[in-house]
Amino acid sequence: MYDISRKALSAALRAGADEAEVYMVKSEVTSIDIRKGLIEGSKENINQGMGIRAVVNGAVGFASTNVVMKMEEAARTAVSSARIRGRDPAWRSFPTDGKYPEIKGTFDPHIKDMELDECIELSTNMLEGASSLPDVLVTAGSFSRVASRRLILNSNGIEVEDKGTAISGFVDVITGQEEPTTAYEYDMSRKMDIDFFNLGKAASELASMSRQGISIEPHRTEVVLHPFAVTDLLTGIFSFAIDADNVQKGRSSLIGRTGEMIASEKLSIIDDGLLEGGIETAMADDEGVPSQTTPIIEKGIFKSYLYDNYTAGKEGINSTGNASRQSYSSPPSVGIRNFIIGYEKSNVIEDTDKGIYINTVIGAHTANYISGDFSVEARNAFTIEKGTLARPIKSLMLSGNVFDILRNINGAGKDRRQVGGTVTPSLRIADMSVVG
Amino acid sequence: MKNVDFYDVRVVDATTTSIIIDNGNVEEISVNYTRGGGIRALCGGSWGFTSADGYFNEKKALNAASELAISMHSRNPKEKVELAPVEKPVLKDLPSVKIDPRDISIEEKVELLKEMNKRAKLDGISSTSTAYSEAEVKICYTNIDGIDCEYELIRSGFVVSAVASENGIYQAGRESKFGVKGYEIFDENDALELAANAANEALQLIHAKPAKGGNMPVILDQELAGVFVHEAVGHASEADLVLEGSSILDKMIGKQIASPLITIVDDPTLHEYGYFPFDDEGTQSQRTTIIKDGILSSYLHSRETSAKLGGDPGHSRCQGYSMPIVRMSNTYLDNGNSTFDEMLEEIGEGMYLIGSRGGQVNTGEGIFQFNAEKAYLIENGEITTLMRDVSLSGKTLEILNNVTHVGNDLKMNSGRCGKGGQLVPVSDGSPHICISKAVVGGT
Question: How many Å apart are CA A110 and CA A122, to the nearest integer?
Fold first, then answer.
C-alpha cells in the first residue's frame, strides 16, 4: 500500500503537479444475507481503490481507480484535469504538519480475524432472537464484519494510516396475517459487543407491540422520538445546515447565526472525531487533518460550522477535521464525524402525560434541506397516556421543521445509543403536528 | 471446478467522468476508471459470492465463492435453489449514440455547463449548480452453462438546480435528464431552457403558500404519478420481496387489484435510462406487463424467483460487482384516453400535485408517502393558487382503485433506484392521472 501510494504521488508530481495527495483504502468484508427466516448465502468482498488529487497553479484535479496498474496513470489524469480548471483563488494548500491524537476502541482483532463459522453463528443468534416471539417472520436481514485500512499521503509531508473494524446486524420482521405490521432493528459497533439475540428479539417485540393499531385524529401534541427517529430527522438536515460549504454558497438557513440561541438551552451538540469506539472515529479525517472535538451547540447557543481544509482556507481559519469521502472514487467534502446530541436525562416517557412515541420515520430524505420543513410517515408509533405506551397507531404523518424541533426539545431519555455516527437519547418535542 | 450446482462471473470495465459547476465555478472534474468482478456460486440452497477490484485472479475468486457456498451448504443445508433455464442472449437493437462524449473535450463540456449555470442565475436566485456525468461501461458475463456474452453502453446526463432566497425563505428548483445516450442529450432536451426552468420554479415557490392537508381528490402530473408507479407498485411486484413476505401483491396474481383503467409495464428494451440488452444473469431483456387492465398479471423475476413462482426471468440487476437482485428497468403506467381538462372538470375542488422530491414505501404494508415539488389548488374546475411542501400518502391498493382518469400524455423520467444498498439506473413514467380520494399532507 505504501509503495504504490508513493509511486502514484511521485507520478503526479513528475507530471507537473505543484502539490499532490493520495488516498488509498483496502477493506475486507464478510457478510451474511438472511431472507425469509433463512440464511441465504454469504459474501466476501475484497476492495481496494485510490483517489488522487493534484494541484496545478491553484486548481485541483481528481482521478481514481481500483486497478493497481492504472494508479500512476490516474495520477497523471488528475494533473490534466487540474490544468483544465481555472485557478481557484480560494485554494491554499493540502493539509500540513499532522500531529495525530491517540484514539481508542476502533480496532478489534477479534473482528479482523473472524471466521465464516462465527459470522454464521452470530447471524443464527439474531434469527433465533427474532423467532423467540410467536407469529413473527424475519423477512430480511444481514450481518457483516469489516476490517479496513486507510492511508493518506500528501506532498506536504502528511502520512497517516488508520486501521479499523466494524460489525453490524440488521433485521426486518413482519407479523400478522390480515393487517401485517413490520419493524426493524439495527446495530453497528467497532468492537464485538453486540448481543445479536437481543437485537433480533427487539425487532420482533416492536412488531408485535405494533399490532392492531388505532387511527387518531389530526392534532398537535408532545412527541417522543426514539434515537432512530432522531437520527433520521435531525442528523441529515442539521448537518446540511452546519456544513461550511453550504454556508459559503448560501444554502444554509444558519448563515451568520453563530452566537445566537437556536435551540433549547438544555441542548448541546458536539461533533467528535475522537469518541472512544465511535463509528466515525479515526486519527485523521479523510484528507489527513488530525481529528478533533468541535462544539456545535452549547446550551442552546450555536457555536460553529464544520469545515474541511478548503472551506476553512476560504475563511482563513483551521479545518475542524471534517473532510469526508463517500469512497475512494470521490474527492472529499465536508461531512460530520460522530454527531453527539446531549440533553438532561429523565424518565421521558413516564414524565409524559399525553403524547405520541415514534420509533422510526420514512421519507426524511424528502424534507426541504434548506428550510428544514419535513412531512414524514411515522412507523411503529404509539400513544402515550399517563406515562406509558398505551396503544399502537396504524398510520401517522408527522410534520414540522427541524429548526423548530431544536427549540422545542423539552426532555430526553436515559437510552442514549449510537446509530451509525449519531449518538443520541430519545428526545421529547413539544407541540408537533400529527395527522392520523 | 468444485462441486457446485451453478456459478457465474461478471466482469465490469467502466470509465466515468463527472463535472460539477457550482455558482459558475468548476467545483469538481473527476475521472474514475474501474474494473472488477462479482462471482456467484450455488451449492444446494446456499449462495456464495465474492467480489474483487482490479485485474483479479478469476479462478481463485471462483474457488473462494464455491467454498463459501459449499461450506454454507454443509453447515446449514436448505431446500435446493432451482434456476429457470435461459438461452444465450442475442444482442439486437442496441441504443446508438449520436455524439460519443469521449469525442468532446472536457473544456467544451465545462463551457456548456457554465452557460447553463448562467441561464439559471436569474434575479433572486442565490445559488446554482450544474452537474454532468458520463459513463462508458463494458459488461462481460459467463456462466457454468457456457453462456458467454458482453455489451458496451454509454450513459450520460445532467442535472441543474437553482436556489431562490427571500427573507430567510429558501426554495429549490431542479431539472435533470439522463439516458442511454451520448452528448446529444444536451441538445435533444434543450438544456439551456431547462436551466432557466429550474430557476423559475425556485422563484415561484418562494411565493407559494404552505399547503393545508386533508382528504381530497387529486390530479398527479406525469412525474409524481411515475414515482408512485415505480415506488408503490413496481417495488411491490419484485418477486424477491413477494417471496420474503414483504409485498402486498403476494398471492394476488390474476386478481383485480386496480381500476380497469390501469396497465403498468416494465420494459428494459426501451431506450430509456433503465435499458439493458441482457440482465446481470445473462437473461435476454423483455417487456413484462405487471398489471393489465387492473388485473395483476406478473411479478418481476430473477432466474431463482422465476423457478419458484413461475413467470419470466430477466429483471436481475446489480450495481458494479455486487450480487444481483430483482430490479425494475423502465417502468410506466400506459396511456389512457382522458385529457387534462376532463380531469379538472371531474374534480371540481381538489389539488393538482406536480413533480417529486422523492418518497418512501413500505411494500409489506402497502403504504407510501411522497413529497411533491409543488401543487396547485383546483377550485371550480380551475387551477388557482400555487402551494408548496405538499405530500401525498396513503395505501397503494386504495389509490390504484381510486384512479378515475388516465391521461394520454405519457412521459418518462430518469433516476437511480436504491435497493439493498445498490443503485441502478432506471426510468419511470405515467400520463396525468386523476384520483378520486387521497391523503394530502401539508405543514
Answer: 13
